[in-house]
Amino acid sequence: xxxxxxxxxxxxxxxxxxxxxxxxxxxxxxxxxxxxxxxxxxxxxxxxxxxxxxxxxxxxxxxxxxxxxxxxxxxxxxxxxxxxxxxxxxxxxxxxxxxxxxxxxxxxxxxxxxxxxxxxxxxxxxxxxxxxxxxxxxxxxxxxxxxxxxxxxxxxxxxxxxxxxxxxxxxxxxxxxxxxxxxxxxxxxxxxxxxxxxxxxxxxxxxxxxxxxxxxxxxxxxxxxxxxxxxxxxxxxxxxxxxxxxxxxxxxxxxxxxxxxxxxxxxxxxxxxxxxxxxxxxxxxxxxxxxxxxxxxxxxxxxxxxxxxxxxxxxxxxxxxxxxxxxxxxxxxxxxxxxxxxxxxxxxxxxxxxxxxxxxxxxxxxxxxxxxxxxxxxxxxxxxxxxxxxxxxxxxxxxxxxxxxxxxx
Length: 409
Known about the structure:
The protein is α/β, with parallel strands linked by helices. The protein has one domain (3-114, 145-372, 379-404): 3-Layer(aba) Sandwich (Peroxisomal Thiolase, Chain A, domain 1). 37% of the residues lie in helices and 16% in strands. The chain is built from 14 helices and 10 strands. The chain has helices at 20-35, 60-67, 85-99, 134-140, 147-157, 162-181, 207-211, 242-248, 273-284, 301-311, 324-327, 334-349, 382-391, 398-408, and strands at residues 3-5, 9-10, 44-48, 76-79, 104-112, 231-240, 254-263, 293-296, 353-360, 364-372. Strands 1, 2, 3, 4, 5 and 6 form a 6-stranded mixed β-sheet that branches. The longest helix has 20 residues, at 162-181. The radius of gyration is 20 Å and the shape is globular.
């Protein structure tokens, strides 16, 4: 129905001292206010979050809802699919709606990486999740399992040189700065106190500065400039059934026409978007040429560049307003943050279809395909009402008829 996010704060920046529950509460209240919905009507709140210890522990979805002063009767649940946690939250919310077991579900995510550093849940006294497992050692040995090694392995396997990666990273900053200066994010962001705009893009960066950085791993090619930035933020979106749209007079921005998730090599870890994109396009009967805009999380530059080599995606459509290298990657919030940017960008540019994917720990990747909906009411035939129940929202088209016929066959 609608989607909002906080500006993304840089590490140690304007959001660093904000309790994660208050970050989540902020976007929840902003979303409820924007859609003018009685919060009592919400049936569940699904949030993504990683490193759920300390202030992020104890089911942050529920805590954030209560911290927002919203009805105690509405439950909440927290999801961890690593970096894709809140994109998975969207999938769970949409699946609840499509199943008919819920009509209104909020999906979102929150992460304060300044307060709870990345991988805190894997640090002493807890230890890593792999080395103590006999089954894991039998299958994968005792080799290093890390995103940094995975990024280096991708760069080597696909022959992606440092100069190419640095040019990609530089372009991400330039696109993000241009988007901020043009006000492209204004409709999707809700300021938090004095933090009114994304803090991460570096206006003073240059290819020369990037070239002077040392690799993060000895013998590797990945530097800090080629990685997503540690960041803080929250995002939330409302998922509604066609019945709820009519019942409460809501105006949908977009609808989900495909959602899936696939797994890949957990050691290389970050290649999941390649098979996941292929799978999603095959299942949906669509192609990347159908997509007006694409968001793929810039965990590291080679993740996107290897994906582009394999899919042939037009980079002009990919992360058109910059990506996580420039804008930051607040882990559990990033999935809904990217989808917020995607649906608002489709609305702003009058595009029709958008695809989102992101690499995730364990070698996984979610893919979501959305379609922008016209803001004016459209006539709905009897067959259209059947399609409403299948697809979730009230507008439909010949492409959806084709997809439905294919699935039924």
